[in-house]
C-alpha cells in the first residue's frame, strides 16, 4: 500500500493539512492455536499486509474525526461519549484511544484516515493491525512514545475485550507490534518471554488459502471456547486446592481425565485439544531447530484435526481445503487463527506448490462456485511510523 494513497484521502477529507503516517501488520501463526488465553505457546509472525493510517491532532479537546478509506465511511465522535461510536471499525479507534488514556497518554481530539490490505475476516487479524497501528500513532502524537511495546499490545487486547466483545488472547496484538521481517516468534503467553526464529525453510514455502467464508469473532462461539477452558481449570483447581491452577497450561492430562465426567464431554474435548496443542508447539520448535519440516507438517495436520473435531472451530470449506492439501502431498496444512472461516495455512514443498494451488482452485470452485484466494506469506515488520 502506498503512503500517497492514504495521504491524498486524508488531505481531501479533512482540512487539507498532512499528519504522520503509521503502518501495522496482520499476522500468520505457524502453530499454537487457542493456546494464548490458556497460558501456552504460540508461533506467529507479522505479514507484509496490514493497516496504514494518517493521523494528526486537530486542536479540539476530544473530538475524533475518522475516515475509513476502504469503506468510504466517515464517523465523528467524542472520546468523552460513554457509548462511543456504533460503526464497528470506529470502535477500534475509540477503544484504543481510551485504553491509551488509561496508560497515561493525554489523548486529545485527532483526525484519522486509514486503509488496509490485510483481508478482513480471513483470520489474519485485521483488527489487531488496526489496534496496534492506532496505538503506535497515539503514542507518538500525544505520548512522547513513552508507552512500551508490551503496554501497546495489552491496550489492543483490552480494546477487544472492553469495546468489541471478543475475549481474545495476546497473540495477534503481540505479533502485530513485535513482528520482524523474516522471523517467526515463539511466545510464551504466560511469562511473555519470546524469541525470534529466522524462518527460511529450505525448499518449502508458506501459502494461505482463503476460503472467503466470513470470519467474525465478535459474538461468535470464540468466547464459549474460552469459557470451556476456564471451566475445566476451575474444576481441576477445586480437586487440587494444594496447587495453583490458573490456566490449562498448569494442568496435566491426568488431571483432565479426573474431571472429565464433571465438566462434560464438550468441555473435555476442548481442553484435550489445548493440552495437545501445547505439546505440539514445543515439538515444532524442536523440529525447526533440526530442520525437520516433515515433522512440522505432521503437527500442523494434527492441529487441524483437533481444531475441527475437538475444538469445533472449523467449517466444511476449511476441512475441504485441508483434504485437498493432503491429496496433493502438501507437507502441513491447517486452519489458521480463531476459526469459523478464514484461511488454511499450508507448508508446501516448492516443487508441489503450483500444482497444489491450481488443484485447490479448481476443486474448490467446482464445489463452492468460487476459488479460494491465495496469499503467499511474506514475513514483515511490526507497527512503525512511516513518516
Ligand atoms: C484469535 C484471537 C487470538 C487467538 C486466536 C486463536 O485470533 O484474537 O488471541 O486466541 O484467535 O489462536
Write up this protein:
By secondary structure, the protein is α+β, with helices and mostly antiparallel strands. It is about 45% helix and about 20% strand. The protein has ten helices and 13 strands. It has helices spanning about 5-15, 90-100, 125-145, 150-165, 170-180, 220-240, 255-290, 295-310, 315-325, 350-370, and strands spanning about 20-30, 40, 45-55, 65-70, 75-80, 110-115, 185-190, 195-200, 205-210, 330-335, 345-350, 375, 385. The strands form three sheets. It has a six-stranded mixed β-sheet, with helices on both faces. A four-stranded antiparallel β-sheet has the order 10-11-9-12. A hairpin with a 7-residue loop joins β10 and β11 (about 345-350). α3 (about 125-145) crosses α4 and α7 (about 255-290) packs antiparallel against α8 (about 295-310). The model has no long low-confidence stretch (mean pLDDT about 95). The structure holds alpha-D-galactopyranose. Alpha-D-galactopyranose binds next to α5. Alpha-D-galactopyranose binds near residues 33, 37, 171, 172 and 337.
Amino acid at each position: 500500500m502506498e503512503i500517497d494513497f492514504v495521504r491524498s484521502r486524508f488531505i481531501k477529507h479533512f482540512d487539507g493539512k498532512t499528519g504522520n503516517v503509521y503502518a501495522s501488520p496482520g499476522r500468520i501463526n505457524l502453530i499454537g492455536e487457542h493456546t494464548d488465553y490458556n497460558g501456552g505457546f504460540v508461533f506467529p509472525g507479522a505479514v507484509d499486509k496490514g493497516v496504514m493510517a494518517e493521523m494528526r491532532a486537530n486542536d479540539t479537546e476530544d473530538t475524533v474525526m475518522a475516515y475509513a478509506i476502504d469503506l468510504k465511511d466517515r464517523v465523528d465522535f467524542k472520546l468523552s461519549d460513554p457509548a462511543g461510536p456504533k460503526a464497528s471499525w470506529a470502535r477500534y479507534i475509540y477503544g484504543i484511544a481510551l485504553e491509551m488514556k488509561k496508560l497515561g497518554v493525554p489523548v486529545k481530539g485527532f483526525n484519522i484516515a486509514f486503509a488496509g490490505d490485510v483481508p478482513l475476516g480471513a483470520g489474519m487479524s485485521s483488527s489487531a493491525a488496526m489496534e496496534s497501528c492506532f496505538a503506535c500513532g497515539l503514542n507518538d502524537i500525544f505520548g512522547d512514545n513513552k508507552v512500551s511495546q508490551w503496554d501497546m499490545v495489552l491496550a489492543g487486547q483490552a480494546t477487544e475485550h472492553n469495546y468489541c466483545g471478543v475475549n481474545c488472547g495476546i497473540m495477534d496484538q503481540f505479533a502485530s507490534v513485535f513482528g520482524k521481517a523474516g522471523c517467526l516468534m515463539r511466545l510464551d503467553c504466560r511469562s511473555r518471554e519470546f524469541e525470534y526464529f529466522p524462518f527460511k525453510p529450505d525448499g518449502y514455502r508458506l501459502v494461505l488459502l482463503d476460503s472467503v467464508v466470513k470470519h467474525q469473532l465478535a459474538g461468535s462461539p470464540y468466547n464459549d471456547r474460552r469459557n470451556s477452558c476456564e471451566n475445566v481449570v476451575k474444576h481441576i483447581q477445586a480437586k487440587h486446592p494444594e496447587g495453583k491452577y490458573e490456566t490449562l497450561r498448569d494442568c496435566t492430562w491426568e488431571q483432565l481425565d479426573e474431571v472429565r465426567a464433571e465438566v462434560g464431554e464438550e468441555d473435555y474435548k476442548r481442553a484435550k485439544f489445548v493440552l495437545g496443542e501445547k505439546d505440539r508447539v514445543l515439538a515444532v520448535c524442536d523440529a525447526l531447530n533440526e530442520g525437520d519440516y516433515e515433522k512440522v507438517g505432521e503437527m500442523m495436520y494434527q492441529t487441524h484435526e483437533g481444531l475441527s473435531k475437538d475444538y469445533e472451530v472449523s467449517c466444511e470449506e476449511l476441512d475441504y481445503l485441508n483434504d485437498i492439501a493432503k491429496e496433493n502431498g502438501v507437507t502441513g496444512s491447517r486452519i489458521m487463527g480463531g476459526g469459523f472461516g478464514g484461511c488454511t495455512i499450508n507448508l508446501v514443498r516448492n516443487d508441489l506448490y503450483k500444482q497444489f494451488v491450481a488443484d485447490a482452485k479448481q476443486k474448490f470452485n467446482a464445489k463452492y462456485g468460487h476459488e479460494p484466494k491465495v496469499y503467499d506469506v511474506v514475513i514483515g515488520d511490526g507497527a512503525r511510523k512511516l513518516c
